[in-house]
Amino acid sequence: MQGKWILPFKAPGLLLQLITTRPPTDDMMEVAIAAFLRVKEMDEDPSLPETKFQTREKLSVLLKETKEAFSKEQIDESDAEWIYSLCLGIPRSELKNDKIILPSEREKLETMIAERLTGRPLWYITGDVEFCNAIIKVDERALIPRPETEELAALAIEEVKKGRKKVLDVCTGSGCIAIAIAKETGEEVSAADLSEDALSLARENAEANGVQITLFQGDLLENVTGTYDLIVCNPPYIPTGFIPEMQREVREFEPHMALDGGADGLDFYRRMAQDAPSRLCEGGMLLFECGEGQAEEICALFEGKKIEIVKDLEGVERMVKIIC
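-> structure tokens emitted (324 positions)
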């Protein structure tokens, strides 16, 4: 008899783990019986395909297990909540309302969880992210837009509405800033990037969001034509030596050319200080995002200009306005 009772564990899936790590529920026993009968059939007819058996699981149990797995891999536990929210089609705030996870839902969850455990960023896995008033496609061709960059875009939109109509977005990446400005204001927006891959992504995003963006391929302002009322720029500003210390999902998956700002992180600001004024209309504005602790050093590059440092919602000096 002992040999027969071992047969159910030949069925694929998580049954052995579930039964051996906590007392079996009625659902688990139902699956065990069904698995036993199926394996008996398979022994009698080896041509039968394998069958996957799953118990009905509670959301609270699976979410807790996922958070624990993420914590062991130093992955933010909030990513687990995002995955469950997206796969189940419910707001994160409703995850506290327990429910039974259907087998089809569990398959989607397991696929996304397994990919996140490789270190791949969550938003590359989901494929898009909300940014201001736009949905931006994201993949390994460009950085994932950050919340603080939404604040940069909002500041740029505010300046456009004040009268700075012609805009250039330098180091555009996914095109998120340029697209947000164009959608909100309807004004003429151009964008530039060195990476052809990034520009292809920006082009796809502009089309998906129903806006026209003039794109320039080149190193900063290398191939840009015309003059502008506002040049907004979120350049690479991470010091080279700090990149190996960044989170795994950043250092292993996001493009280093969009991160590396040189030894002190300020290489691109120095170049913009030299080249950007010739691309601005009289009284035009430069608007930069920068890293924590960099704002004062950037201001020093524009000595004699009218300068304003703007803090982000966390109180960090994150943006610099310069009127040339």
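The longest helix spans residues 26-44.
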